[in-house]
Design brief:
Strand content: under 5%
Largest sheet: 2 strands, antiparallel
Shape: globular
Structural class: mainly alpha
Distance between the termini: 10 Å
Radius of gyration: 22 Å
Order of helices and strands: HHHHHHHHHHHHHHHEEHHHHHH
Strand order of the largest sheet: 1-2
Helix content: 55-70%
Length: 481
């Protein structure tokens, strides 16, 4: 019989922890007297009580650790349960959002997608703006732990290739996850604090510096202004570029650097591949804008910022790139499907999968030229096993098929072609803004109907959990095992 108690115990603890973080915006509301402190007090009490009772009720089932089926279910259940409670301040608070809008915003925050259904952010209470930032910040560190601990064990989308350099966790997920998370948290917090300091130096006020530091390091992209970074000083763009790049690199390398291996990050082939791809694409966009508008530093800043933002899945914008012309719009669509490094806060397909795909293609081409030769794909100096390649190929197929299904579903929900396709890509790759006048960089998702929003919610969750970890739950074999 399937034992749900270990799953309930972890979820209960995380829900209670989420409720504890609600104290921070409550204190902020009390400080500024904006009248929303009761909202966060009520939400915190509900979350802590519900989470605590669930953990207490399931505490007698955690002694034996978790098996593989429980781990699969946990990775999905957590990302459904937390937004339910994370949505409470939006429902109870001044926004008085519907359950659909509140849950959409909470899922967008925790999956670090950055799509929003709220406008008039400049008039929103500081507590709610801080809560949006906290949701993204927690989602960022959460996905790092999932990518480093759970997904390699679950052999999802080629992630098992990182298992040998990570941690032996199978059968003892909880203690190992706690150990790993504590080391990552210090680094994650330190980078966030550093980002806040530089934002402050760039001319932002203290509150904006804190919130944007959290959403930058999480590569989430929720800003405090409807115009996103266009409302901030130009110097803030370069701070964001630096820290979006830092957040897009594998955090396990930072752990190794702190442990005395300063060259670890530069020896990683996916880091080199990511930086090379980003620099190349940014250079193409800069040259395009220079040809179109003349050689100016402003064009360089806008191109570099937006390419970095979309490729890392952050979703900030300092300009409406829909007005840059068809070439730029098309390029941004495909840039969003690249992503950063595995084990970072970024999203989308991720650069290592492209590297494995190209390595496999290169081996096949060489075999065609020399049929009797033995050519095996290699990654980072190591031979890539067949099960890793199979997992990567499966991920690509599932990603493309899911993208098509979501786009068709959005079209059936009444959205136009551009909005449907770009919305599917933006949600599945957890980018944030799509294309078009409605959900593009100058718009938001508020005008979409509820059916479309729920489709996008499912898509955001699928994308954040690497697709296969969710799809396996719908197979009869999983439940019969």
């Amino acid at each position: 019989m399937f034992d749900f108690r270990p799953i309930g115990y972890v979820i209960g603890l995380l829900v209670a922890t989420l409720g504890g973080f609600m104290v921070l915006p409550m204190l902020l509301e009390l400080t500024y007297g904006q009248g929303q402190w009761e909202v966060f007090a009520e939400s915190a009490i509900i979350s802590v009580l519900c989470g605590g009772m669930l953990a207490l009720a399931c505490s007698n089932g955690v002694g034996q650790g978790m098996n593989i089926r429980q781990t699969f279910l946990l990775t999905t259940a957590v990302w459904i349960a937390l937004p339910l409670f994370g949505a409470l301040p939006f429902i109870i608070g001044e926004t008085e959002a519907s359950f659909t809008d509140a849950f959409f915003e909470a899922v967008s925050g925790l999956t670090t997608t950055g799509s929003t259904v709220f406008s008039g952010l400049e008039q929103m209470s500081r507590g709610l703006l801080l809560w949006r930032g906290i949701l993204q910040w927690l989602g960022g560190i959460g996905i790092i732990v999932v990518a480093m601990v759970f997904l390699p064990e679950l052999r999802v989308g080629g992630m098992q290739i990182f298992k040998s350099e990570g941690f032996d966790t199978f059968g003892k997920i909880l203690p190992r996850a706690t150990e790993i998370a504590s080391r990552i948290f210090v680094i994650y917090f330190s980078i966030t604090a550093l980002a806040g300091f530089f934002y402050l130096a760039a001319g932002l006020n203290t509150f904006d510096s804190i919130v944007h530091a959290m959403t930058t390091v999480a590569t989430g992209g929720l800003a405090n202004y409807d115009a996103s970074f266009a409302a901030l000083p130009p110097a803030a763009d370069f701070v964001a570029i630096v820290f979006m790049l830092l957040a897009a690199l594998p955090f396990v390398r930072y752990v190794q650097i702190v442990s005395g291996s300063p060259n670890a990050i530069f020896q990683d082939s996916q880091v080199r591949g990511f930086l090379f791809t980003l620099v190349t694409l940014a250079a193409i966009m800069v040259i395009y804008l220079w040809i179109d508008n003349g050689v100016t530093f402003d064009a360089f800043r806008r191109a570099l910022f937006n390419v970095t933002s979309i490729m890392t899945g952050t979703g900030y914008a300092n300009d409406d790139y829909m007005t840059w012309g068809p070439f730029a719009v098309t390029m941004f669509f495909f840039i969003g499907l690249i992503g950063g490094c595995a084990g970072s806060t970024t999203c989308s397909i991720k650069i290592f999968r492209y590297q494995l795909l190209f390595a496999s293609v290169r081996a096949q081409v060489r075999k065609i030229h020399s049929p009797h030769g033995v050519f095996t794909p290699r990654y980072d100096g190591r031979t890539v096993s067949d099960d890793v390649l199979s997992s990567v190929m499966s991920f690509f197929v599932f990603f493309v098929v899911t993208l098509g299904v979501v786009a068709v579903a959005l079209g059936m929900a009444g959205l136009d072609f551009i909005t449907s396709v770009s919305g599917a890509a933006a949600s599945l790759a957890n980018i944030g803004p799509g294309l078009g006048s409605e959900i593009g960089p100058a718009g938001n998702y508020a005008g979409l109907n509820d059916t479309a929003k729920w489709i996008l919610v499912v898509s955001m969750l699928l994308g954040r959990l690497e697709l296969l970890a969710v799809f396996v739950l719908f197979t009869s074999r999983f439940w019969r095992a």
